[in-house]
Every structure is written in structure tokens, then in C-alpha cells.
Amino acid sequence: MKTFTFTRTLPRCLLCAAASLAGCAATTTPVLDSHFGEAVTLLKQQQILYPDAASNTNPVLGLDGRSAISGYKLYQKSFSAPEPLPDVLTIGVSKR
What we know:
It is a single chain. It is built from four helices and no strands. The chain has helices at about 5-25, 30-35, 40-45, 65-80. The longest helix has 20 residues, at about 5-25. It is elongated and about 100 Å long.
């Protein structure tokens, strides 16, 4: 009959634990780390519609000054006094 010896089992357990921890410590990823952030940078660049817009010196065609000022004032007013929310019971009821 074999007897259990603590002095033989403890060093083996410590050796297995040390080998397991050494395997976890060697998980560096130099290849992936060197390309970190490239996907985000690429996506940001792909979302720019016209990258050379800053070099275009042609004037922008659009609203005249009076219409632009009026639209801007209405836009600013929408933040200072937002429209009140309707009552929950009036959903689907039209005002006539």
C-alpha cells in the first residue's frame, strides 16, 4: 500500500502552478499592438465626404443674409423655450 507523502506532492503542485502562471505572463502581442488604432483612423477618414474641402476657395451658394439670420434666430429660440410636451391622454386626439 502506498502512503501519501506531503513532501513529494507539494513541490509538484508548486511546479505546475509556476508553469501555468509563466504561460499567462508570456502573452504579449507585439504585432497587434503595432497596429492598434488603425481601424478607427481608417473609419474616420472614410467618413469624410470631401477631404480637400479646405483648399476650395469658391464661395458657398445658399441662403441670403436676411434668411440665414432669421433661420439662426429661430434655431437659437428653440433651445431657450422648447415646445411643451403634450399630455399623455391627448395622444391620437386631434384639435379642431
